[in-house]
Amino acid sequence: MTGNKTIAILGTRGIPARHGGFETFAERLAFHLRDHGWTVTVYCQGTRGMRQPVDDTWQGIHRITFPVSREGAAATLEFDWTCVRDVVRSRPGVALTLGYNTALFCLWMRLRGVKNIINMDGLEWRRDKWRKHERAWLWLNERIGCWVGDHLVADHPVIADHLSTRVSRSKITTITYGADRIEHASPDRLRELSLTADRYGILIGRPEPENSILEVVRAFSHKRRGAKLVVLGNYEPGKRPYHRRVMEAASDEVVFPGAVYETEMIRSLRYYARFYLHGHKVGGTNPSLVEALGAGSAIIAHDNPFNRWVAGSENRYFSSTSQCERHIEDLLRDDSAVAKMRAVSRERFASMFQWSGILDEYETLLERYCDNASEPLAFKPQKRL
Fold it and tell me: What is the fold of 187-352?
């Protein structure tokens, strides 16, 4: 492709990635496109302490950081609307919106002729944590996103099937998430948590009921294991009843190190774990589950179509606490089963979830919709809402 290859990426907290799967993806895609001759702008959410927007360049990526004057969901609404207005003003060749939570704002891009590809994420409105009015907002915005996006990306075939009940299948492309293969890691990091390689399982996820944290902890804590379970996440038992229930259900063999974001520590924990436990019930292709495949992990996952498609038929699945416990017990004593599952995970990762192919797919799609006639304007800070 020749011409004006400019893209704006919005819908995340920004880069460098520190928060989750969307931010990691935005960073990887930005680098990939940069290396292929694109001019990439990523919108970043600032803090209430910022007085003015910041326009800078980070590792060859143009960043625009907008401050917010609110907190929580209100801050997200403020930030997303500010970003959409700036995209309409600057007119990149194409916009990529990650998530549909404020798809209503994307209507402005549609009306002003800015090509916008929307990654529709998972079935966010089905999550148990939302109150009725929040769920209604998300359901409505999913519908709006389907209508106003020039094209939709589904990260999982089940998500694509769901979206096809809203719009034509021709408007949907399925592209999964990727991860890095972990082929080695330092065992020294395990000593920081008093862990022994191959004698612990690991669970990574937000401590919410829909992620089956309580069921997994109860399953592991039913009896002495002679092994440990490492549960990563930010637990606040004094503030959140569910967090307290999880920690009260845990035996002294369950370790809660908090939310760990350091890359090398996460690599070591994944690489040397005997198995990875994944309790997510709702969503599409979960980045943490893909990362487990990249680490060559034996996987015990909640039994649903999302997880089964990602991890494959040779890994283990549970729909009850007792079933989860049986899998834990089996894998703690059966070395051959663990070895077989690890091999299957590596093979599945290599065939479906490597970044190189996934990012190429995104670039091909973005090129189809890139408006070469657009001329990006110089950055001009807008007034905050």
Answer: Rossmann fold (3.40.50)
Helix axis angle for 335-352 and 321-333, nearest 10°, is 110
Residue among 132, 156, 154, 128 at smallest CA distance from 142: 154
Q: Which of 169-183, 278-292, 366-380 has the lowest mean pLDDT?
A: 366-380
- pTM for this one? 0.88
Which residue type is seen at 68?
V
User: How does DSSP classify residue 204?
Assistant: E
Residue with tokens 């680490």: 295
- Token pair for 125: 């409105």
Rounded distance, CA 180 to CA 165, Å?
Answer: 33
Residue 377 has a pLDDT of 38
Please tell me if the domain spanning 6-178+354-369 has the same topology as the one spanning 187-352: yes
**Which uninterrupted H or E stretch holds 384?**
none
Q: At 20, which amino acid appears?
A: G
CATH of 6-178+354-369, one of 3.30.230.10, 3.30.565.10, 3.40.50.2000, 3.30.310.180: 3.40.50.2000
What secondary structure does DSSP assign to 329-354, as a single string? HHHHH-HHHHHHHHHHHHHHHHHH-B
Which residue, 10, 65, 53, 62, is CA-closest to 31?
62
Beta strands 61-66 and 54-58, pairing class = antiparallel
Contact 45, 14 (CB under 8 A): yes
Q: Where do the domains of the chain lie? A: 6-178+354-369, 187-352
Per-residue pLDDT tens over the stretch 211-247 = 999 999 999 999 999 999 999 999 999 889 999 999 9
* CA–CA distance, 143 with 166 (Å, rounded to integer): 7
Cα separation, 104 vs 110, in Å, equals 10
Q: Which tens digits make up the pLDDT trace of 268-303?
A: 999 999 999 999 998 889 999 999 999 999 999 999
pLDDT exceeds 80 at position 128: no
> Token match 């927007």: residue?
53
Could you write out the DSSP letters of every residue in 7-25?
A: EEEESSS-SS--S-HHHHH
Q: Which of 145, 143, 125, 144 is nearest to 135 (CA)?
A: 125
Q: Closest by alpha carbon to 95, among 27, 180, 8, 163?
A: 8
